[in-house]
Every structure is written in structure tokens, then in C-alpha cells.
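Human: Cast an eye over this sequence-structure pair and say how the chain folds.
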Amino acid sequence: MKKIETYVLGMVQVNCYVLWQDNHVLIIDPGTASSKLMKDIDDRGGIVDGIVLTHGHFDHIGGVDALVEHYHCPLYMNAWDKDMLKDAYLNASGAMGLPEIIVHTKPQFLDAGKHTIGVFEFQFIYAPGHSSGCSMILWDENLFSGDVLFAGSIGRTDLPDGDMGKMRNSLRIFKDLDPSIKIYPGHGPVTDLRCELQQNPYLNM
């Protein structure tokens, strides 16, 4: 059985997604080391196959080291954002005047295309603009869009490493996707692509 659970974490309320496939778990964007998230997984005997980051900004990475230590699981991300893990300016924790967030876990890198992590099969979609390595995860009919696409909006491009030109190119990806897919963004409510294609002004630029 497949299931998606959402944990809203941290001061900027990032959506951390916990994907279940039978008793296996894949964690997307753990913004903080949530004791509730870990207790929920542990109480159900979850086996964590890995952690996947959509990008390297502070609000998406803050819980990585604690989860890796607890579950002894690998970390995956796009290589273009690897320097963000160890640079508080690049990951924007320094730029925001917040306590610096540094990740010590060494990541493994995913290129665009189909991948298998444990029991999870998904497509990794490269979509730079919000950051150089920004990527999305398509699992069946569910797209985890990170900070590329939100309900009615898109990710900002004024942080270090943002690029509006690249973002415009990345937004064209949505024209080629099945409009019936559900969008699970990095912040805010779940939406669907058909609605965003009709109503999101940034998809009609």
C-alpha cells in the first residue's frame, strides 16, 4: 500500500513529505529533526530507504543529519546544490540572519531520469531557477515540486543562486506533464496541475 504523509516543519513551514510503500519509507525535504515524524515512523516499524532533497536551502535540509544518524539511511540530491549543505550563505540561513545550518552527511547525487531507491521507483526532474540544482520528484501521479511550483505561485529567485531566466525555462516542463497529476509543493497546500495550468499566472508567461 502506498501513502503520502505531510509534516509542516520549521519557522518557514516547509512541507516535509513521508512516502510509504508497505513498511518502507522515503523522506523528502526534512526541514527540521521532527520528533513526531520519527516517532510516527518508528511506531509503525518503518524502514527508511533514503532521504531526497528537492534543493539545498536551509528550510529543506535542517533535519538531515539527525535523521541519517537515527535511521542510517543515504541522502540524495542534485549535485548542483551540494555546496549549499556546507555554506550558510548559499543555503540562505546566513542570508536570513538565522542560526547557520550546515549538513555534514555526504550526499549521493541523482541525475535527471528514472531512479530506484529501496522499493521506491520515481522520476527525478531537473528544474533549476529557484536554485541551480532545484529538482522535482514524480512518484506515480504525484509530483513533489519543491520550491519550483506552488498553488498559484512559484519559488522566489532572489536568493543566492536564483535565476529567473532558468525558472522560466523550468516552468515549461509543466506543459508536457499529465494535467491530472497532484502537486505537492515545498510550501502551502496541495494542488493539481490542471488547476495550475488554468489559474497560475506564472505558467502562462
In short: The first strand starts at residue 2 and ends at 9. The helical segments are 35-43, 58-61, 64-71, 164-171, 193-199.
